[in-house]
Amino acid sequence: PVRIGVLTSGGDAQGMNAAVRAVARSALKLGAVPYAIMDGWQGAVDGGDAIRELTWSSVSSILNKGGTVIGTARCAAFRERHGLLDACQHLVEKGIDRLVVIGGDGSLAGTNEFKEEWPSLLAELVEAGRITPAQAESHAFLGVAGLVGSIDNDLVGSDMTIGTDSAMDRILTAIDQLSSTAASHQRTFVVEVMGRHCGYLPLMTAVAGGCDYVFIPEKPPAAGWEDELADKLRAGRAAGRRESIVLVAEGAVDSQGQPITTDMVCDALEERMGERPHVTILGHVQRGGVPTAYDRWQPTVQGYCAVRQVLDQQAGDESVIVGVRHNRVALMPLMEAVRNTRAVKTYSDALDFDKAVQARGESFGQ
Ligand code: F6P
C-alpha cells in the first residue's frame, strides 16, 4: 500500500490536530498507511522513531486539542543539501513517497523545493550506496499536498487558513474582558495583536469587537494620525462611551514604513488626553487553546481532500494547496499561491500598500 507522511511545520495553529487526524483516518479508509513525521522536517532529517506509523486510535482524542500533537520546529538542516539527503533517505527507507504538509507559506515553499530536488536526491543517494536502485525506482515520484496552518490568515488565494478563527476567538474574548474593566474606570486600552505581515486578525477583531481604532500593516495612517486618533477617542467619550479600545498589529507601520508600537500610541494619547492608556500584549495566548468548531470541521474536510489529492497525483503533477475559496475546498498550485503571497509582502515592504491591499483583498474576497 501507498505510505503517506504527515507533518506540521512552522508556527503552530489551532486546528492542526484536526488536519492530522483527518489525514491519518482518511488514509486508512482509502487503503493507504499514514505516518507521522515528528517535529516538522526535523523528524524526516532524524529518521528512526521520529517517523511513526499512525493507527486509527493513535489519533483519537486530539480533535479538541490546541497546538499540534506531532510537534513542529523550524529545521535549519532542511535548508542544507545534507539535510535534504537525510530526509529523502529516511522517507524512502520507510517507503513513504506521498506527503501532506501543514504549515505556513515558508514551510510549503520548502516542501516544494524538496519535491523538485527529489529525483536528484535519489540519484545521489544511490550513487553513495545509501539506498538501492530498486528503492529509488519504486519511489521515483514524490506526491505533495499542502494545508495552510497559520493563525495570520496570510495565504493569498485561500479565504481562511487553519487557526485563524480560533485566534480571533481568543482576541475577542480578551477585548470583551478588557472592555468591561475599561468601561468601569473610563479607561483606554491599547492592545497588541499578532499578524507579522498581515492585518487580518487585528482588522476583523476590531470590527467584531467594536473597537475605536486599528493600526494594520496594509493601511498605514496618514501623517498626523496622533491628532486624528485622540479626536476620535474624545468624540467617543463625548457621545457617552465609557471605554476606548485601540488595536495595534505587531507589524503596524506609518506612512514612511516606520513601526508604530503600542508605546508610541500611548505616548501620543497621554500627550493629548492627559492620561496614559493601559497596554495589553496578547502574544502567544492567541495561538493557544482549543480550536473553534470551524477549526475542527474545516481542516477535517481539507485533510480528507489532501489525502485524495496525493493518492491521485502522477509523476509530473504539480504540488497543490488544499485551501478554501467562497466557502468551498479549493485546490491551487502550491508555488503560484506562495508566489502571490510573497508579492504581497514585497509590496508592503516597498510601501506599495495599494497593491498589497488589492492582492490581499483577492485572497479573502473583499
Ligand atoms: O503564527 C504566525 C505568528 O503568530 C505571527 O503573527 C507572529 O509574528 C509569529 O507567529 C511569532 O511566532 P514565533 O514566536 O513562533 O516565532
From TrEMBL:
It comes from the Bacteria. Transmembrane segments: none annotated. It is found in: Cytoplasm. Residues 3-308 form the Phosphofructokinase domain. Belongs to the phosphofructokinase type A (PFKA) family. Catalyzes the phosphorylation of D-fructose 6-phosphate to fructose 1,6-bisphosphate by ATP, the first committing step of glycolysis. This is 6-phosphofructokinase. It comes from Nanchangia anserum. The lineage of its organism: Bacteria, Bacillati, Actinomycetota, Actinomycetes, Actinomycetales. The chain holds residues 18 to 383 of 770 of the full protein.
